[in-house]
Amino acid sequence: MGINQAMDISVSGINVNRIHMEIIASNLANINTTRTLQGGAYRRKIPVFSEKPIEFAQALSSAEKKLSGGIEVADIADDPTPMQRVYSPGHPDADAEGYLSLPNVSLSKEMIDMVYVSKLYEANITVYNASKRMASETLSIQ
């Protein structure tokens, strides 16, 4: 693996973390949304990550090392956890029994995820900068 590939992998991690942060922001923005275009309360979104495939030439040269080409967001899925049900008979979105379905978004979980993703983002930036510094130092060898 070359320095450029290390930088490319770091960039893929940075992009994935940016997308994950956007999903967290969307979840927080919709924490009280009881009516969506699909009907019903907002359902929390979660990213599904997958290994980013590498090109054939890279795969051939690194077959013995079992290296990947980075990471990517394969899908954005709905969180399957059940919705919160609250008794609120006066709410316009309540069902016939007077129960209101609230989004399955937890403020504390989203905040924990946000801190975690920001640390991953910082780590990928650090790896990128270290790779860039190594490339620069390699060019200055005489």
- The pLDDT mean sits at 89
- According to DSSP, the number of beta strands is 4
User: Order of SSEs, N→C?
Assistant: HEHEEEH
Q: Counting H and I runs of at least 4 residues, what is the number of helices?
A: 3
Strand order of the largest sheet: 1-2
Shape: elongated
Distance between the termini: 23 Å
Share of β-strand residues? 15-25%
Strand count, sense and closure of the main sheet?
2 strands, antiparallel
- Specify the helix fraction band: 40-55%
Number of domains: 1
Q: Poorly predicted ranges (pLDDT <50, ≥5 residues)?
A: none
Can you describe what's shown?
With 142 residues, this protein is α+β, with helices and mostly antiparallel strands. It contains three helices and four strands. It has helices at 3-29, 56-61, 107-139; strands spanning 45-51, 71-78, 84-87, 99-102. The strands form two sheets. A two-stranded antiparallel ribbon has the order 1-2. The protein has a two-stranded antiparallel sheet with strand order 3-4. α1 (3-29) packs antiparallel against α3. The longest helix is centred in the last third of the chain and has 33 residues, at 107-139. The model has no long low-confidence stretch (mean pLDDT 89).
Short descriptors:
3 helices, about 15% strand, two-stranded antiparallel ribbon, about 140 residues, 4 strands, alpha+beta
Question: What's the short story on this structure?
Answer:
By secondary structure, the chain is an alpha+beta fold. Helices cover 46% and strands 16% of the residues. The protein is elongated.
